Amino acid sequence: MKTALIAKTLLATVLAAATVTLAQAQKKASAIVAHRGYWNCEAGGYARNSLAALESAQKAGFWGSEFDVNMTADSVLLVFHDAHINGKRIDQTPYAEFKDYRLENGEPIPTLDQYLEQAKKYPKTVLVFEMKWHSTDEIENRAIALSIEKLKAHKLFSPKRVIFISFSPNASRVLAQSAPGFTVQYLGSDRRPAQVAAELGMNGVDTWFKTMLDDATWYPEARKLGMSVNTWTVNNADQMETLFEMGVDQLTTDNPMEAREVLSKMGMREVVAGKKIKIKK
């Protein structure tokens, strides 16, 4: 009789704990950012930073779509990740030399103007705008000023539509100064990236996931400094689960649909396009 009573008590305790854990998980929410668009699917053409990948992310309803911006020698802003194309440094080469280059799906490299035209079609999707390193601070500063001009011309220069990220300390500082009220996240994996971001005048960090997982002090330090927290590029389901449980505001991934499944399995809410993220404390 005693054994049965103890067993029932233990079972009740376990069930109660599970209920609390589930309730806590359901209160949590994180956003998914499609890394270089939702390219890793047929609709995205398996082409990173393509217009098709952006459209695919928009139609899927992910909170954000990340993309990379480089500027040519004649001040054309291109949505392209690498600093070089066919061995030629983008910021030292005129746009005409890249016009015939094709992405994996046959698209030409989008100009920022073309990219923003597609962005306007889905006003709820947040643009996660990465300003790439350039050869000099002066070139980088011109690229930032021109980017902001383009965003304004397309009526997208709004903290509700765009957040900025960068590895470059110079670009990070200039973006924070040029876009007050916007989320500006530092991409660096310094030992204390939150402190670096704060010193640069930024209000967020977007750091390699392994940095966060390997240093238990990283996340609480970022929160203590009032930083928003994004992490890149998380493509493993178990690691996604750990980081979602940790409480990241955004998780950047090449597999956004899998991240959505992980959130659902955990009983966590996905912050979808058009919903504001409340910074966790």
Description:
This protein is α/β, with parallel strands linked by helices. The chain has a single domain (28-271), classed as TIM Barrel, CATH 3.20.20.190. 40% of the residues lie in helices and 19% in strands. It has helices at 2-27, 51-60, 112-119, 137-153, 169-178, 193-199, 209-214, 218-224, 237-246, 256-266, and strands at residues 29-34, 64-71, 77-79, 84-85, 88-89, 126-131, 162-166, 184-186, 204-208, 228-232, 250-253, 269-271. The strands form two sheets. Strands 1-2-6-7-8-9-10-11 form an eight-stranded parallel β-barrel, surrounded by eight helices. Strand 10 (228-232), helix 9 and strand 11 (250-253) form a beta-alpha-beta unit. The longest helix is centred in the first third of the chain and has 26 residues, at 2-27. The N and C termini lie far apart (47 Å). The model is unreliable at 5-26 (pLDDT under 50).
Quantity of strands, as a count: 12
Shape: globular
The residue ranges in which pLDDT falls below 50 over 5 or more consecutive positions are 5-26
What's the mean pLDDT score? 91
Between the first and last Cα atoms, what is the distance in angstroms? Answer: 47 Å
- In CATH's first tier, which class applies? Alpha Beta
Features:
281 residues; alpha/beta; TIM Barrel; eight-stranded parallel β-barrel; two-stranded antiparallel ribbon; 10 helices
